[in-house]
Amino acid sequence: DEIELTYIEAAGAQPVIIDLRPTGAGMMQVAVYYLKSNDSEIYLVREVHTVKKSEGVARAALNELIKADPVTPGAYRVLPAETEILGISIEDGLATVDFSGDVLNVNIGAAGEALGISSIVNSLTEFPTVQRVKFTVDGRADKAMDWWGHVGLYDQPFERELNSVYEPAIWVTAPTAGQKITGSVTIAGSARVFEASVSFRLKDAAGNVLAQGFTTASAGAPDRGDFTSELSFDVEEAGRGQLEVFEVSMEDGSDRNLVVIPVELG
Q1: What domains can be seen in the chain, in order of their start residue?
Q2: What is the pLDDT along the chain (266 residues), one digit of tens a residue?
Q3: Considering the entire predicted model, what is its pTM?
Q4: Smaller CB count within 10 Å for the chain: N or C?
């Protein structure tokens, strides 16, 4: 499957994320969360993958989480590839997922177990109809209670938790790539940045800055916060443009964690 995010090395080794989200018929995007480790801790990374369009979007997201390889360097899957989804039901904001017994064949340690659970929960709570998630195995809740050994399911249902999602530092949920914008645009997403400050600018095809601004996310690093803002602009000629969302470095004023989203200016 195609992956929406392309990573390039920019000045200062800061990753630039170009949103290449395809708009082909019969395809859709799902957000999935993988694990990644550094010398001191394990954390989550978020990726948006392009998959075949399906009415069962929650099942499609979980299948991608189980089967697909991450694109983020160093990230890895936790769920065994043999895991099958025996059923998913969503009622009153609660998603109940019934896995095959293969899901229990994981040996990753307590920290990895907790994040492995969060990777499933966060992937499912990307959908507005899901606020909480619980698991069963082979149709039984009692068979799954110890889960992977260290972190059980005794506190389920679980809720979305994004403070353990370190990469990307910024992601944008609006506007979407290729979206036509006229006069103003709503900019929304999630950020894990210093003092919660998120900057943005809109450029035309020639690179001229049409408008720019900044906003404050609901929390700053090391926590993660949501952000939303309106940006008004004037354009003399319709055509292609790009929205850039980034963090300004407190050290040298350079762009950090830059996300570039192609748009159509109207």
Answers
A1: 5-166 (no CATH), 169-265 (2.60.40.2550)
A2: 333 444 433 333 455 565 555 456 788 889 999 999 998 999 999 999 989 988 899 999 999 999 999 999 999 999 999 999 999 999 999 999 999 999 998 888 888 889 999 999 999 999 999 999 999 999 988 878 888 877 788 889 999 999 999 999 999 999 998 899 999 999 999 999 999 999 999 999 999 999 999 999 999 999 999 999 999 999 988 999 999 999 999 999 999 999 999 999 99
A3: 0.87
A4: C
Cα separation, 225 vs 136, whole angstroms? 31
CB 177 within 8 A of CB 19: yes
Q: What is the DSSP string of 88-126?
A: EEEETTEEEEEE-GGGG-----HHHHHHHHHHHHHHHTT
3 state DSSP class of 60: helix
Reading the block at residue 176, the tokens are 């979407």
Please report how many Cα atoms fall inside a 13 Å half-sphere around the Cα of residue 211, on the Cβ side.
18
**Residue 227's closest CA among 133, 162, 183?**
162
Q: Cα–Cα distance between 174 and 258 in angstroms, integer?
A: 15
Taking phi over 0 as left and psi of -120 to 50 as alpha, with beta for the rest, 178 belongs to left
Tokens of 141: 């809740």
